[in-house]
Amino acid sequence: MGDILAHESELLGLVKEYLDFAELEDTLKTFSKECKVKGKPLCKTPGGSLKKDPRSLTVQKDLVAAFDNGDQKVFFDLWEEHVPSSIRDTDSLAQKLEFYLHIHFAIYLLKYSGGRPDKQELDERISYFKTYLETKGAALSQTTEFLPFYALPFVPNPMVHPSFKELFQDSWTPELKLKLEKFLALIFKASNTPKLLTIYKENGQNSKEMLQQLHQQLVEAERRAMTYLKRYNKIQADYHNLIGVTAELVDSLEATVSGKMITPEYLQSVCVRLFSNQMRQSLAHSVDFTRPGTASTMLRASLVPEKLKDVPLLPSLDYEKLKKDLIWGSDRLKAFLLQALRWRLTTSHPGEQRETVLQAYVSNDLLDCHSHNQRSVLQLLHSKSEAVRQYMARLINALASLAEGRLYLAQNTKVLRMLEGRLKEEDKDVITRENVLGALQKFSLRRPLQTAMIQDGLIFWLIDLLKDPDCLSDYTLEYSVALLMNLCLRSAGKSMCAKAAGLVLKVLSDLLGHENHEIQPYVNGALYSILSIPSIREEARAMGMEDILRCFIKEGTAEMIRQIEFIIKQLNSEDLLDGVLESDDDEDEDDEEDHDIMEADLDKDELIQPQLGELSGEKLLTTEYLGIMTNTGKVARRKGLASVQWSGDEPLRRPVTPGGHRTGCLV
């Protein structure tokens, strides 16, 4: 209580000072009277009374007088001395007022000299105005309101020009003077800020900055946790794969004791799995933990932690509410929802957890692929918001990374047509185009969609894009070349290439020497495929393709050299058609692979970050959209074509995605 009494006088003085500043006269009188009745002393603040500084009043009067007299030099000297630069340079109201003040002084002689202005003085004023426009005033040159006035210094007689008619009306100068007086009153009043308001601003700003900093640290921590979770999932999958290989080797040792021989083919297959496949995540789910009676069973059971065997399912969601907000919500909410739905898929554990998430999306028709309504979630691909378009493309690309997701998206060509349209229209956002292109490349594993893309002329669009590969991101380059190869494997695609054989061969031969070596297998595969057409072989020979290819034999790896040798052999072949691919147009067979590849690029360079108090990610979904039993039961996986190993000696002859190719697994 003693501390309060010790500071009471000063606190009451601060309140009195603020009431005086706010011009709450009646409240101030009542406050002062009550303090006097109760015997509470009012301490005078260090700044004393907040009555206007006489010097400030003098400056205001001098500025207004200079305005009235057209004294340009005096006015702007006072203006720059007494109006803080922080206000002149950043406050839009001050910048606009200063612009009109320059106009006022530039045309002052034209308005108030009786039609006979001194030519030399007028030229000086116009020159001063022109210098202002070229320096400080240039910032407003993009504003429609001020654009016509940039021509003022160059008009011989502004008084009769229709664009400046308003400036010479009798009301224009008094209105500008009134704006000036209000602005000056506000500026000089702000310079006498009461101490109470200063304390409030300083403390409030510090608290706000601290909260924003803590919130940013929280967001970064969550992102790091997500990254570590992905690394953990990969290490876990590698671990399972290693155990599986070890168990099989133990079985082989047991077999040798019984006199059974191990074949070289078997040893080769083990080596391929162990090294070429980079210990694929998918092997973690193919390891058999149930075979009794072998040493491998004991090894697996003893080394696999119990907690890795049982991954909990994610909570069910209210998909009706989700889709409603995706269609009718604000653009920012839409972007956060699309991001959260993608994260739920990309960060889930491979296996039952991820399959359950995907089945829930498909069974609830998350993207409205089967909807005939005029407004649907799919329409977000054409949103005016860059963030919404990008995050919709990311989500579609994530779904297309999984075989069951591709099956869902490919039920009809509606999604394909929308992606093709977005691909050709999107010229602002590189990441949006990357994800659209990535989704289309994965679509090209399905034959009906390959056919549609070929018919839509996508081959020619890709060739045009690849004319200047150095302008493309690594992702765009790799996926566009891989897509081109997949389409060129079809007879219809090769026939399309034959219509512009010279251009196609020129682009592909240029790509052979590109510094991005990841694209070489796809370039080789495309060349090998289209050279099965006699007319294209003839064109290639005419342009000296064999000499070009032999140049790369000198510098390439052993693997690339063997592929190029196959291409040269194809180039010099006299066959009418490549027999291996004669039946490639069977629409009933899909080039699908069993393995699902979820790329790290899907979550790179996030465009939006939550502000203080905003929910995002799984917290947003489980807080606002929790549902009941919307997760479907585990569905048996659709059995696709068996995966085969690519030896690397021959060019690619089956469709592949870059993600699948890196693991050494083709379809």
Plain-language structure description:
The protein is mainly α. It contains 31 helices and two strands. The chain has helices at 2-21, 25-37, 54-69, 72-82, 85-90, 92-106, 108-112, 119-134, 172-190, 195-257, 264-276, 295-303, 306-309, 319-328, 331-346, 352-363, 386-400, 403-409, 414-425, 430-443, 447-455, 458-465, 474-488, 491-498, 501-512, 520-530, 534-542, 545-553, 558-571, 617-624, 658-662, and strands spanning 644-645, 665-666. The protein has a two-stranded antiparallel sheet. α15 crosses α30 (617-624), α19 packs antiparallel against α20 and α25 packs antiparallel against α26.
Can you tag this structure with a few keywords?
disordered C terminus, mainly alpha, two-stranded antiparallel sheet, 31 helices, extended, 667 residues, single chain
The helix-and-strand class reads mainly alpha
What percent of residues are in strands? under 5%
Proportion in helices: 55-70%
Strand arrangement, largest sheet?
1-2
Rounded mean pLDDT score: 79
Q: List the uncertain runs.
A: 46-52, 276-309, 578-583, 639-646, 663-667
Assembly state (oligomeric):
single chain
Number of strands: 2
Shape estimate: extended
Distance between the termini: 82 Å
The radius of gyration computed from the alpha-carbon positions, rounded to a whole number of angstroms, is: 37 Å
Number of helices: 31
Most strands sheet: 2 strands, antiparallel
